[in-house]
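Tutorial handout. Part one gives the primary structure; part two gives the three-dimensional structure as tokens.
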Amino acid sequence: MPHSLIPSSWLSLHGLFTVSSLFVYVVASHVLHQRRHPSAAIGWVLFIFLLPYVALPLYLLFGTRKLARTGRSRADARTIPPGADQSAWPAELAVALGQPGPAPYRALCVHADGAESLRALLELIDGARHTLDVCSFMLGRDPVGEAVSSHLAAKARSGVQVRLLLDGVGRMMGGWPELSPLVHAGVRVGLFAPLLHFNLRGRTNLRNHRKLAVADAGCEGERLWCGGRNLAAEYFEAQPGGAAWRDLSFDLQGPLVRQAADLFRRDWIFAVGAEPSTTGAAAAVDAKPTAMAAPGEATGQIIASGPDQADDTVHAMLVSAGYRTRTRIALVSPYVLLDEALLMALCLAARRGVEVDLLLPARSNHRLADIARYRSLRALVAAGARVWLAPHMLHAKAAIIDDVLALAGSANLDSRSLFLNYELMAAFHDAGDIARFSAWFDRERRAARLYDAKPPGLWRDFIEGLVLWIGFQL
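Part two.
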């Protein structure tokens, strides 16, 4: 439409709305300390400038990346408990990033497959005597989801205080499992940021991807089940027409469990809005401090990452590992979308002779993620890293750094997991247990083939760039 045919009053209102929208973006980013990647910041500014009527509502819904922290303060977390291995840089770095100090654990079991993992989970549920907290992104409307729900309901009816926290979007992806039988049995059910719950604080795009089950934290026999598996059938057992997804999970006992219980408690408060009243053994985790590790005792830390943390903790630890590792970095993730900082750290590690191995599925369950990953993979191979493609769906998330650190949990190597989602990784510092995770990685790698990097064509390069740009904004 020619300029003369556009009413000047409309142009003035349009300009005022555009300027106001940019002002909202700038003020919100400053006040909430969003610290966006430059490409994301430029993308939002251009989007608001070109399409302010569309961009502003989307920013209010999806724009928040960091929230005010709840629970543990940075000052409270800076002291490493006496007796912990203060010479190990991973533990010191985690504490500097506001995470709890090393705590002892025992009886670590790295599950061989989905069947063993499901048995361990149901045994943990059935063995709970006082409290039971379960957090999952997804609860499937399938035999596994029904089995877990049945065991949770039975525990609640027996008098155990049971809480189940599910992500709002994850519940939808799981087929909208029926939760009323759990509620009627006495299970307290919380939904984390339900999809259809409009929220001007921008939480709609922030998902809780943490996966854990904690029994009797702070009491004798306290136990943790954790890893990358959602509570749905494909993560544990073969499905009609296909094999079970390969994944990584583990369970353990001891004082480290209390760190996971504390993280669940903070997530529950955020999702539900109030801490349920607890008495006796149910309140033990809040009253009982984490035990100090004895010399030679295995120690670990629960590493939380997400909007509730001041720093991007898992990302920071991986970047630091790229510069500090001496001999080996082994990484596994179903989805790989590395930002410039992490990609450079891994490439420089490979160039200085570190053995860098990345294991991922040849084809994942997310086609766009598969398209977006190849720029990172080509750069890694060019630097001397080895990229391994597994023939099956591999959903595990882990990192093994020399013999000083093993990380295992829920965080993928993509921008959503590292910068947006609420994630959980357990850090293990015991050399023997690190070797067990390394052996698991080597077993999974045997079936994989090396990725042969080839230059992309013009059209492929354009598509990859477009998917990468869109993906980072979300």
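Part three, for discussion. Residues 69-80, 82-86, 279-287 have pLDDT under 50 and may be disordered. The chain is about 40% helix and 15% strand.
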